[in-house]
Each structure stands twice: as structure tokens, then as C-alpha cells.
Amino acid sequence: MYLKRLKDLREDADLKQVVIANLLGITRQQYSLYETGKRDIPAEYIKILARFYETSCDYILEMTNEQKAYK
Hints:
This protein is mainly α and 71 residues long. It has a single domain, classed as Orthogonal Bundle (434 Repressor (Amino-terminal Domain)), CATH 1.10.260.40. The protein is built from five helices and no strands. It is globular and about 30 Å long.
């Protein structure tokens, strides 16, 4: 499930939820709801996270296993 990818990307970068929440301009609690699947994450946030992690939206959404961003 793509929620695991969100958490894995964050943890691989050694970041806390609050850092990602600040990047998105939301509270840590709200980001936690996205990461745990209790709320759907908006597409705009997925785009921001893909740029931040230098990957693709397709990777985050598990449409590919290729982690590299598109050129």
C-alpha cells in the first residue's frame, strides 16, 4: 500500500512527521492521518513529496518500483 511508501521514504531520510507536515503546511497530526490511511492524501501533497524525495508520484502510489524521478 502506498501509505507504507510514504512512511518508508520519510524514515529513509531520517525525518520526523513534523518536518514533512511543515513542508506541506499542515499539522503533524494531519500528516499522521495521511500516513496511517485514516484520511486520503491530496494529489497536490503527493506531488510536493515526490519532488522533495526526488522520486515520482508513480513510485509513491506504487504504480512502479523504480524510485528514481523522471528526467
